[in-house]
């Protein structure tokens, strides 16, 4: 059934309950489930109202914060730190929180939850549901900021490369743009959810300033992602423009070369016909004269082209 369940006292100490009741004798009971658990739907239907049960069982979520019957439906997203999975494919955590119980459901492993689980095993769990939420949001936000900072550093590297015209388009540029888009998709609604969370009655007045600060940090991360998106587009545009300039220059040089050699090709084709009456057939100097004439013609064409400022 659950991945873990703890009865958490007001001093942060924990015990593992021996019953399957929704709440226990301690300050609150924390249930943690995996969404793939085939018994989870039955357990939710038995212990929860229809709306919070449905919120916990949704296969796909977006960040939200909604009050319901004295409790809180909270969906959050965190950086994906699972091995072999891209960080921008953010992991989701579904929550139902009341003053006596915290239920969390994951689809993929959420390391912020794992950190709290280890704290609970070490008898240092958050002493109240409000502090549980605050600690979880703090860990999620810190990792989001670290990920945004890593993209910002990579973007600075891309911009520095623009000083060298010979630098090819970085392979990571397109991937970085996708990372920004995917992160922003969830962080923008998460910002709104955290702003609303700071005003919820379930959160005591003492924790609201910290939650507002976390919401502000998330807002700053979203704004930084907006700026990074524009900067990465500018880097891509600069590389595309440089490629277009090189292609245009090469095409122009080929056209100039064709313009020089076209008259010469005409002369060689004309004097290469194998019919009677061609001048110079019996003269030993005819070939040399023709070569000199073509060289002079080529030089004249080059001078004309330069005076026209084509090259």
How many helix segments? 7
| Total domain units | 2
**CATH architecture of the largest domain, please?**
2-Layer Sandwich
What is the general shape? rod-shaped
Helical residues, percent: 55-70%
Cα(first) to Cα(last) distance is 78 Å
CATH homologous superfamily identity of the largest domain: CorA soluble domain-like
The CATH class label of the largest domain is Alpha Beta
Classify the beta-strand content into a percent band: 5-15%
Give the helices and strands as they follow along the chain.
Answer: EEEHHEEEEHHHHH
Structure summary, number of beta strands: 7
- Biggest sheet strand order reads 2-1-3-7-6-5-4
Low-confidence stretches: none
Descriptive tags:
alpha+beta; Beta Polymerase, domain 2; seven-stranded mixed β-sheet; 7 helices; 55% helix; 13% strand; rod-shaped
If you had to describe this structure to a student in words, what would you say it looks like?
The protein has 311 residues and is an alpha+beta fold. It has two domains: 4-242, CorA soluble domain-like (Beta Polymerase, domain 2); 273-307. The protein has seven helices and seven strands; from the N terminus they run βββααββββααααα. The chain has helices at residues 40-47, 50-57, 111-121, 129-161, 172-197, 208-271, 286-307, and strands at residues 4-8, 14-15, 28-34, 64-68, 71-78, 91-97, 101-106. A seven-stranded mixed sheet has the order 2-1-3-7-6-5-4, sandwiched between helices. β4 and β5 (71-78) form a beta hairpin. α4 packs parallel to α6 and α6 (208-271) runs antiparallel to α7. It is rod-shaped. The relative contact order is 0.09.
